[in-house]
Design a protein that fits this description.
Layout (H helix, E strand, L loop, with lengths): L2 E9 L5 E8 L6 E2 L1 E2 L4 E5 L10 E2 L1 E2 L3 E2 L2 H21 L11 E5 L8 E3 L4 E3 L14 H14 L8 H18 L5 E2 L14 E2 L21 H21 L1 E3 L2 E3 L4 H15 L6 H16 L4 H12 L4
Parallel strand pairs: 1-8, 5-9, 9-11
Antiparallel strand pairs: 1-2, 2-3, 3-7, 4-5, 5-6, 10-11, 12-13, 14-15
Helix pairs in contact: 1-2, 2-3, 3-4, 3-5, 4-5, 4-7, 5-6, 6-7
This protein binds 2-[(cyclopropylcarbonyl)oxy]-3-methylbenzoic acid, calcium ion and zinc ion.
């Protein structure tokens, strides 16, 4: 048997010090990015994308000089802990399934993904993206794709695909709760103050924030990364409040908002749910959690009115 629960140390993509769970051989060396408790393992794909996951990342000591792997591993642990503590969910499949991540996937790949079996992180080209595991909201976004696939299984095109994307952005912005931005830590490393998406102001990054402005077409699986802005705006308003298209929403906070969406995702949404069904599922979930005439239900109704989903 090896030393199963050792604390590893290392710098993340942004140069910050991180601690995380590793496994070491009985002799104490080498050690691996292998969290035996949570069943999270992080691999190095060595710039290829054929035979994944690649090599389990190891070090001769408990110190790891592998920033992309350190962040993919640490942020997967944080996301795991969020789902476990807040919703009692035991990993992405609620069955304690093993969580595999690979970093350095492909050559300067400006992408991150859940491929149905594991998480993949590109290194980015250093212009559009730096190493993509370097942001908690990105890792939480990808892991939430795995949760969605094991629950509502929202089909990844058209309105259900936009909802799939939106749920990942909502959980990403809840777990990385320092702001309402997505990808800001790893997007355009040479430029500060921008992001990939904003839930507070989708149009800032060319996303619609009203149903009448939705993209109807065939790019990007029918605009899944575009129309997600419409539902993202509703989620933002439910949490933070505000007035949108003359409709005033009283916010109920990020915590209750995310509980509503998790319940909708796991109990009410179906694979081809559209925005109208999202509204109903959110109202139903808020009713279950807080009562039919609660401020929380009112916030959900007003938020969906404000984005033109009645
Ligand atoms: C960077 C990127 C490109 C293409 C698809 C995704 C995807 O996972 O949908 C993607 O990751 C994100 O959107 C994360 C949240 C920033
Ligand atoms: Ca963020
Ligand atoms: Zn996504």
């Amino acid at each position: 048997n090896a030393l199963q629960h050792v604390t590893g140390h290392g710098k993340g993509v942004l140069g910050d010090d991180k601690n995380f769970d590793v496994r070491c051989e009985t002799s104490g060396s080498p050690c691996y990015l292998d969290d035996v408790n949570r069943k999270i393992q992080t691999y190095d794909a060595e710039k290829q994308d054929q035979n994944l996951p690649g090599k389990l990342i190891k070090s001769s000591s408990t110190t790891f000089n592998e920033p992309a792997g350190v962040d993919a591993h640490t942020y997967a642990e944080k996301t795991f802990d969020f789902y476990k503590k807040k919703f009692g969910r035991n990993s992405f499949d609620d069955k304690g399934g093993k969580l595999i991540s690979s970093v350095h996937v492909g050559d300067k790949w400006n992408n991150a993904a859940w491929d149905g079996k594991q998480m993949l992180y590109g290194d980015g080209d250093g212009k559009v993206f730096t190493m993509l595991s370097g942001s908690l909201d990105v890792v939480a976004h990808e892991l939430t794709h795995a949760v969605t696939e094991n629950t509502a299984n929202l089909q990844y095109w058209g309105e259900s695909g936009a909802l799939n994307e939106s749920i990942s952005d909502i959980m990403g912005a809840t777990i990385d709760s320092k702001n309402w931005l997505l990808g800001e830590d790893i997007y355009t490393p040479d430029k500060s103050g921008d992001a990939l998406r904003s839930l507070a102001d989708p149009p800032k990054y060319k996303q619609p924030d009203h149903y009448k402005d939705r993209y109807i077409g065939f790019q990007d699986n029918g605009g899944v990364h575009t129309n997600s802005g419409i539902n993202n705006k509703a989620a933002y308003l439910i949490a933070a409040g505000g007035t949108h298209h003359q409709v005033k929403v009283q916010g109920i906070g990020r915590d209750k908002m995310s509980a509503i969406y998790y319940r909708a995702l796991t109990l009410y949404l179906t694979p081809n749910a559209d925005f109208a069904e999202m509204r109903k599922a959110a109202i139903e979930s808020a009713t279950d959690l807080y009562g039919a005439n609660s401020a929380e239900v009112t916030a959900v109704k007003k938020a969906y009115d404000s984005i033109g989903v009645n």
